[in-house]
Amino acid sequence: MDVFQFHNVSYGYTKDKPILRDISFSIREGRKTAIVGANGAGKSTILFHLNGLYATQQGDIFFRNQKVDKKLRKELYQHVGIVFQDPDDQLISLTVSEDIAFGPVQMDVAAEEVQGRVDKYIKLLGIEHLLADNPSELSYGQKKHVTVAGVLAMETDVFILDEPMAFLDPFGKERMASILQLLQEQGKTVIVTTHDMQFVAEWAEDVIVIHQGQCLGSFQPRELFQRPDIMKEANLTLPPIAELMNDIWKGNHGEMPIRIEEAKKWLATYM
Ligand SMILES: Nc1ncnc2c1ncn2[C@@H]1O[C@H](COP(=O)(O)OP(=O)(O)OP(=O)(O)O)[C@@H](O)[C@H]1O
């Protein structure tokens, strides 16, 4: 089943400049979906429609086959958690602990359960030592961990993360990758925007390509990397492993290796 469908959606921040132009695509339930495209392509603008922050101006959005009208748009946040690209847009409380509790409190989760979730997600993110700190005084990476914990604490079944890996150190990236994996194992739908094509290769099942406010299609990663026309039009680059392997693979011996583990196996077999 599709969790979201966009039908001919257009959107502009001002009347004279369309940002999303007649966009149609679907996002499947329980899948790991990446939305990719160059800076300014319109990815964040799409995400803000997915959790009801923005109302459609033209076209229709369907959430689990139900048209998103005024009423459903207001309820979407209970199903769809979103981690913004810039944590400063999201952190509002005076302590980390209050910030993580904010979402579930808004959703009328019982106090005891809220405390249980705060404890659980600070442990998962490894930020127990920050609990009493003021979020505004943390580093970018620490703030990001707090916002992720806050959205996890809402326990929605759709998770959206705008550039989850940006500016994280290698350890932070690993932790983020394992959280995304955990969400997938729990059967959640996870949607991310990213510029990191190696991450797309390693993680994504479906990739939606956006270029100048238009959708160039939905692909599986390997399929996309073998479409130089789409890659070029959307200003995307191959993931480093695919770039490296492309010269020696030359279409021989099965599928093009795009992941690190695949490349290792391929090299051990054929070189
Ligand atoms: N609040 C706003 N007011 C006016 N224009 C905006 C606003 N937010 C975004 N835009 C414009 O909309 C376009 C798409 O922006 P958006 O943030 O959706 O792109 P993006 O694909 O997420 O980019 P990036 O990869 O840089 O995050 C850009 O031209 C941007 O300047």
From TrEMBL:
<comment type="similarity">
    <text>Belongs to the ABC transporter superfamily.</text>
</comment>
<dbReference type="Pfam" id="PF00005">
    <property type="entry name" value="ABC_tran"/>
</dbReference>
<dbReference type="InterPro" id="IPR003593">
    <property type="entry name" value="AAA+_ATPase"/>
</dbReference>
<keyword id="KW-1278">Translocase</keyword>
<keyword id="KW-0067">ATP-binding</keyword>
<keyword id="KW-0472">Membrane</keyword>
<keyword id="KW-1003">Cell membrane</keyword>
<dbReference type="InterPro" id="IPR015856">
    <property type="entry name" value="ABC_transpr_CbiO/EcfA_su"/>
</dbReference>
<dbReference type="InterPro" id="IPR050095">
    <property type="entry name" value="ECF_ABC_transporter_ATP-bd"/>
</dbReference>
<keyword id="KW-0813">Transport</keyword>
<dbReference type="GO" id="GO:0005524">
    <property type="term" value="F:ATP binding"/>
</dbReference>
<protein>
    <submittedName>
        <fullName>Energy-coupling factor transporter ATP-binding protein EcfA3</fullName>
        <ecNumber>3.6.3.-</ecNumber>
    </submittedName>
</protein>
<dbReference type="InterPro" id="IPR003439">
    <property type="entry name" value="ABC_transporter-like_ATP-bd"/>
</dbReference>
<feature type="domain" description="ABC transporter">
    <location>
        <begin position="4"/>
        <end position="237"/>
    </location>
</feature>
<keyword id="KW-0378">Hydrolase</keyword>
<dbReference type="InterPro" id="IPR027417">
    <property type="entry name" value="P-loop_NTPase"/>
</dbReference>
<dbReference type="GO" id="GO:0016787">
    <property type="term" value="F:hydrolase activity"/>
</dbReference>
<keyword id="KW-0547">Nucleotide-binding</keyword>
